[in-house]
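User: My instructor asked us to take a sequence, write out its structure as tokens, and then describe one feature of it. I'm not sure where to start. Here is the sequence I was given:
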Amino acid sequence: MCNNNQYSFVMSGKFTLLLFFTFFSVSLIFSQSEVYVSPSGSDDNPGTVDQPFKTVQKAVKSVESGGTVYVRDGIYREEVTVLKKNILITAYKNEKPVIKGSVVVTGWEPRGEFWKKYIEVQPQQVFVDGNNPLQQIGMPSKYIVNDGTKRYMSQVGTDIKDMAAGRFWWENDTLYVWLEDGTDPNGHEIEVSRNRRVLNLLSSTGSLVKGLTIEHSNSNTFAEQDAAVKLGVNCIMDSCTVQWCDFGGVSMNKGTQVLNSTVIYNGATGLNASSCSNFLVKNTRIAYNNYRNFYSQWHAGGFKGATYAWGTIEYCEIDHNNGAGVWFDYCHYSAYYDDEDGENLYPIIIRNNYFHHNGTGNYDPDDINNNASILIEVSEQAYVYNNIIDKFEYRGIWVSSGWFSYFVNNVVANGKSGAYSYGIDGGASYVDRAWVKHNVIANNILYNNSTSYQIRMQPDDGGTKFFDNICQNNLIYKKSGTIRMVCGRDIYYSVKDWQDKTEFGDNSLSVDPKFEDAIFHLSSVSPCVNAGLNVLTDTMTVDFDDNPRIVGGTIDMGVYEVQNATSIKGYKKDAEFSVYPNPTAGVIHIKSGLNDKNIFVKVFDAEGRLVAIEMLNGGLSSSVDLSRHPKGLYFISVDSGGVEEIFKVILQ
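Assistant: Let's start with the prediction itself. The structure tokens for your sequence are:
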């Protein structure tokens, strides 16, 4: 982030001499370290807090590199471009400024049942009394045409003959509108998108934007694809809202970050990335994108990374997107370096996100390529873990040509029924020179999905297209109905049959996972505890709640790791023992309800070494002090001479 103390402005000797004689006038000519802007200001002002500029563009031109632009509350209708400087553009204190790429249009003239107005620039969006969009008739512009070679969207109508309530049409520099209720638009605020972008930082490096709301771009009038916000290298967007933009919301770049933000109701995609690496999207809501109903297999949904894009998406809520929640397409090293086995220093990481209600909308019911909450397509080194994927359509996770990737410790739940629908589709490849190889699908819980099939894999073909894939240690369970797994063209109706007749399914389960709540925490008696495959443990160090990932030496299935003390599977539990507190800062108390027996207590560390031993004399409690031992996992064995119970305890 930018820090004003890190930068200084150095003038040449000639300018310094001028500054010496005419300080005040020069302060208005040369850039400043701190400027202010307000809708009530004037661009003839000096840009101070008492005399602010009127436009954000004037402010960013006036501020020096390393300086700060404070944006006061209100609405700004402009396109802001930052050129070759790194600055902070931030809301002033807790105010909520909005920058829009639209204009307010008045002076409408009647034209039969609807109204018209001369508008020179073709608009992509028309809003009535706030963010209530009218439906555009026809295709967006000359750049987006369903010409038989590419399918963009299902258009509504073709020309002015298709005007109806709630629609707009533009041709020959004239805009026609018909409000939903048929009323005169002169009695409403009509906002019409005009500017290609709203905030353009593409030529800036290291700038920070904070606390702004961005709305109403007009990208498709000028290009096939674009975004309202274009971030430059290492730029950061923090605590912003980007909404109701005509195509893309935010375009990522190398090293960019989108943090603590909201990206919703954008025309095609919320965020997109292309030919960039090491970007980060964190703690951001990405929702309700593709409201204009572009074709989901072209460019639509929450996030799309295309062509050599690698980055991290974590701790986000990604929901109700009309298309994929997150989609990486053609993101592999061999595409760029022509080395199919080259190791990517910046892998794709999708972790600790909450996906729900993704995949609704513009699909072809006869198309086997309908989308997914998470789609990895012709891409490599994707690490997809600790994600909740709930109430999805078509596919939860889809590997459509991917290699050297991990899909582990996710919960895929409550998927809807539909043709060609899967909980996890781990075996599809429709592209030449693209493989499904060296992938690991493990430790996932597929719960109560009504999809056509729970998991699909392809048998090993000996190294041609599908090979060296692992799919095991998954739990597959439905409350009612039959589960179905697919291998190649064969369907299996039980996990056991799938295990016995294919190379997949080892150590997988088909029992109730015993969740303790609606967000899929495991109960202490869940069969998923210590039932996973220890993979990706160097990268996946915490669970969905940021608790330690491995407790007990073996990873749990699903997104959570059970942390509290519990009896280890296989031991009797009819003795009445209690061990507390857990976690502990050092002292562990052990109490027995068996008053007539002597109880032996042994404490082992995670490596199985005995570190303490105590004895309880009939009904008495005892304590063990572990404060001198290293922090971590310990096992408490409580033995009454025939009945043994073992507890897991965390020393913090």
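For the description part of your assignment, you could build on this observation: The helical segments are 13-21, 23-29, 56-62, 333-337, 495-501. Try explaining in your own words what that tells you about the chain.
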